[in-house]
Amino acid sequence: MNEMDNKWIGKNTIRPDGADKVTGRAEYAADTIMPGMIWGKVLRSPHPHATIKSINTKKAEELDGVFSVATSADCIDFPVDTPVILGIQDIRWMARNVLAKEKVLFHGHPIAAVAARTEEIAEKACELIEVEYDVHPWAIDIDDAIKPDAPILHDFIKFDGRPSNIAGTLEHKKGNVEEGFKDADIIIEKEFETAAVHQGYLETHACLVSVSPDDKTTIWSSSQGQFMVRAMTSFITGIPQSSIRAIPAEIGGGFGGKTIVYLEPVATILSKKSGRPVKMVMTREEVMRASGPTSASKSRVKIGATNNGKITAAQGTFYLQAGAFPGAPIRGAAGCCLAPYDIPNAHTFGYDVVSNRSKVAAYRAPGAPIGAYAVECVLDEVAEALKMCPLEFRLKNAAKEGTKAVHGPTYPVMGYVETLEACLSHPHYKAPLKKLQGRGYASGFWFNAGGESSAQVNITEDGNVVVTTGHPDIGGSRASIANITAELLGIDINRVSVIIGDTATIGFSNLTGGSRVLFASALVVTESTNQVIDILKDRASKIWNIDKEAIEWENGEARPAGDNAGKFKPLSLVELAEKATPTGGPIGAGHQVNTVGAEGGFATHICDVEVDVELGIARIIRYTAAQDVGKAIHPAYVEGQLQGGVVQGIGWALNEEYIYNKEGKLDNPGFLDYRIPVCSDLPMIDTILVEVPNPKHPQGVRGVGEVPIVPPLSAIANAIYNAIGTRFYSLPMSPPKVLEKISD
Amino acid sequence: MSEVKFVSPETLEQAVDEYSKSSKEGKTKILAGGTDLLVQIRSGASQPDTIIDIKNIKELKEISNYNGSYTIGAAVAGAVLDEEKDFGNNWPGVLEALRLIGSEQIQGRASLGGNLCNASPAGDSVPALIASGATVNVKGPEGERNMPIESFHAGPGKTNLKNGEIVVNFQFPKKQKHSGDAYIRMIPRTEMDIAVVGCAVNVTIENDKCVDARVALGAVAPTALLVEDASKALIGSNFEKDAVEKAALACEAACNPIDDKRGTVSYRKKVSKVLFKRALEKAIERAKRG
Amino acid sequence: MAKIQVKTKINGEETEFLCQPYDTVLDVLRRDLNMTGTKEVCSTGDCGACSITLDGRLVCSCLVLAAETEDKDIETIEGMAKNGKFNVLQKTFLEHAALQCGICTPGMLVAAKSLLEKNKNPTETEIRYWLAGNLCRCTGYDKIVKAVQAAAEEIRENA
């Protein structure tokens, strides 16, 4: 298709769900109600680490207004030593995270839940539940969890033959690093640490669940995957998936944090036991204490290069804290950190470390910002030592088509070099800086994902289109799908309606995550729409009595082509829809597939800071993000992904952190002291959309959502160094830490 | 929750009467803007059995100016006081301190009286009020009295109000010619944070000489502080470097802070000096203008 | 427990409700009146998602007791579009892609409307500080600020 002829692809159309969202009509999970609905609340652990000796719920059950009580005894039992894998999760852990079983492993760990007439009664009943604990010492930070006499969270986890909090490792190797470092003229090795940060989605977890006496279950909830909700709830409650209908509500942000369940299985048990629909809504404090942030980390990175600027070897070791159960995103850290570079010898190693914090959940490019932070900061130091421009240094070592990546694959056509070139030719690169201002650069990579997707495209009786897909729309994917469908069918965008189906109305579709949604759903929607066009041609061929092959679909109508060209008046979609019944019946097609060909995404960022050296405050004064987006189907929402990711990275770099007190409890469980960036903290975030189409996708789409959070941590650290000559190896670079270091 | 009473008296007498009666029997809270109280109720930190909304009482909502001396009702919200342009011309430091509390949404409700009675060591308006030399009028069952702001607090969350006493309004001195006040705080972000350190300065200048000065600090001790040694160092000076440095050191010496999630002892001490100098510079500039 | 009866005006309509002393306006709007356009995100006044105006003043509805609203005038997101037509801010938010997940959007719109009623020509800095109490985690605020600027321009042109 000729780019210039595109009518909808690449246009900033109005999003299909927009009107509802600007008027308050859009229905989020907490907005949902049902007749006879009651309220569920969770009792949470007051200790960071303890064995549960007994739970007595009798007094709670007897309280007036209480309908049901749930504990782990109501869940399916998954023995701790037998893995039950679902995607990247293990149901053994998921079940114990939803309702603690043998032990409580963090302050705020759910122990029991109550459903009652009001939230107040449910809360009061929770207080009446008697739990006997055997309290253990706890480990919050990585160092405490891996020291020789650390309190062990899970006795059966062994490392080097001994019980350990190191739950897993991962390694990538290429060439021979020892030899590589021998070839280096300069070697720099540094250690880094980052604090745990939360996704900070504004909508708290919420659901409404109704279970009928025959176990038919309906779940309305806020998640990044209705099919994930169905599967996990089914595993934990034992209700078969065919009996569960999971309906995706509008989702108020997730960033990875809503790829697992917290409340749905609990509400299902409470509803089943009470016979009433049960609504559960977390408070902000519950979200902060008990839902998954991403890992805190410690890492060590060593990079060697020749005097002429070629990297000869790189080595990285990353310890990522997983929280109460195994599953830290070490793959993102160890796998993505060197991906932008063509390095002959490399070795990365990741450790998955459990500790007495809430179980980590995915957060936008899980693990990748942690790995990139260390590598991109060391690269800045190497470039400085070589007296090279940091961008030119990266350009000299940039991975290209054909490069064998450290994490395995050989790259196809990709646009990393183009992001570097775009930055070099952007006015930002040469803009003057004042005193105490500095400029930093960093690159980043994310794998991007394919996976299962389903779509159904139906022509309405009046000749319009309804598209159904199976992925919760978290950032505007419906708008992009509308653009693609309207383009393929050659009709006005207002004739296309895009719906997110529930688990009963659309085929299995994997999570909204991994930057996969538009890549995957565009594939299945394109295939479905092409099938619909084929059907439409077939109908026209019946009406005209000519071969289907002699018909072309153009501009929203079937036209006779070849020898027949001009012989018949074209038939529009509306006309064909009107004649659908006599020509063969309803017109529609669906496609379901495990999509492949999602190629990685690369970005390069330029950041300017100004440092108040008397107070230790670094402010972002200019920011430019360049990214290979493949093809921007809806440029404004692609820019929005870049801008949003950058700002989350800014928060991570400067002020966000989980702070624990001496009792092992989170000390800042709210937006007052967990400081996400506010509007006045920021400049406009400039974006450069580099378009190197993904050759394995019909529209050239690459995932765009995750890469933008990868470079900011190091871009900002490098900019601060450029401004004041002090390097920071620990995040966040909050004012007290900054001032302390610069006054030394 | 047992029976909770919500009352909204229309006169000060009714309010004092209700407050002194109910607080003898149980936990009573005065509701002004509610921006602290409602958070405390929601978290369970405060569970009053009587709530007295004082926003329907005329005196507490009034702004008046007699011969240049302002009286500001305790429950006047920040956004409302902001619209009283002349007050901002007289006491820009007090206004900017009050206006720094929370978001615009908070400003629709938060008041000087509420900020004072919440008694947080980090309350933004308190150092500015102290520096301005304002006093507070309170009314209780035993009548009215007037207190300097700097002796209002007994500790974090604690005031020297007696049983049944309600803060009515703030009395500002007549602004001196060539005087100016300013308030600056340190927060990690640009908005929405609690002050890690706050500093207010009010100076009066005659022939380039400092003839009066009041310096106050917030968030560096159990209560906001009037730093008299800093004032002494400034009065009589021409704001020469040595005098300013001496005053800054006095600020640092006055600090008795804690390490907490918002800042460390050493950070707060260092920052108090910096903020003092910046607030002083701003106050001098304002004093010179008027 | 005896409930408090309150008579107030919401989006111009006389409304009566019963509430408990601790109930906030947000509780009553969402739970009792089914006006769920106003969002609950933090319940502590730190995010602005529950923004409404009370007698024309921008406030967090989570920090106003329902019992206080006797004879008051409340405006919520549900009252912003008039006679089936978008307010100019609703239109520019859509045109400028100023929302992603949309959960902050109602509060953001209510706050932005309140700004433009006070200041028809705000600078970027004024917009950013006015909206500092409205958290958004998706957009990085860039397009929100631009949408407010566009709305202000449109309002000035039509004045």
Walk me through what this model shows.
The complex is a heterotrimer of chains A (744), B (290) and C (159). Chain A has 21 helices and 30 strands. By secondary structure, chain A is of the alpha+beta class. Chain A has three domains: 3-26 and 450-595, Aldehyde Oxidoreductase, domain 4; 32-136 and 203-252 and 258-290, Aldehyde oxidase/xanthine dehydrogenase, a/b hammerhead (Aldehyde Oxidoreductase, domain 3); 297-448 and 599-743, Aldehyde oxidase/xanthine dehydrogenase, molybdopterin binding domain (Aldehyde Oxidoreductase, domain 4), CATH 3.30.365. In chain A, the strands form eight sheets. Chain A has a seven-stranded mixed sheet with strand order 3-7-1-16-13-14-15, sandwiched between helices. In chain A, β4 (85-86) and β5 form a beta hairpin. The longest helix of chain A has 28 residues, at 517-544. The radius of gyration of chain A is 27 Å and the shape is globular. The N and C termini of chain A lie far apart (61 Å). Chain B is α+β, with helices and mostly antiparallel strands and 290 residues long. Chain B has three domains: 5-53, 2-Layer Sandwich (Uridine Diphospho-n-acetylenolpyruvylglucosamine Reductase, domain 2); 58-171, Uridine Diphospho-n-acetylenolpyruvylglucosamine Reductase, domain 3, CATH 3.30.465; 179-289, CO dehydrogenase flavoprotein, C-terminal domain (Enolase-like, domain 1). Chain B contains twelve helices and 14 strands. In chain B, the strands form four sheets. A five-stranded antiparallel sheet of chain B has the order 4-5-10-6-7. Chain B has a four-stranded antiparallel sheet with strand order 11-12-13-14. In chain B, strands 1-3-2 form a three-stranded parallel sheet, covered by helices on one side. In chain B, β4 and β5 (69-73) form a beta hairpin. The longest helix of chain B has 25 residues, at 265-289. Chain B is globular. The model of chain B has no long low-confidence stretch (mean pLDDT 96). Chain C is α+β, with helices and mostly antiparallel strands. Chain C has two domains: 4-79, Beta-grasp domain (Ubiquitin-like (UB roll)), CATH 3.10.20; 88-158, DNA polymerase, domain 1. Helix content of chain C is 34%, strand content 16%. Chain C is built from five helices and five strands; from the N terminus they run ββαβββαααα. Chain C has helices spanning 25-32, 88-95, 105-118, 124-130, 142-158; strands at residues 4-10, 13-19, 51-54, 57-60, 73-75. Chain C has a five-stranded mixed sheet, sandwiched between helices. In chain C, α2 crosses α5. Chain C is globular. The mean pLDDT of chain C is 97. Chains in contact: A-B, A-C, B-C. Chains A and C meet through α1 and α19 of A and α2, α3, α4 and α5 of C.
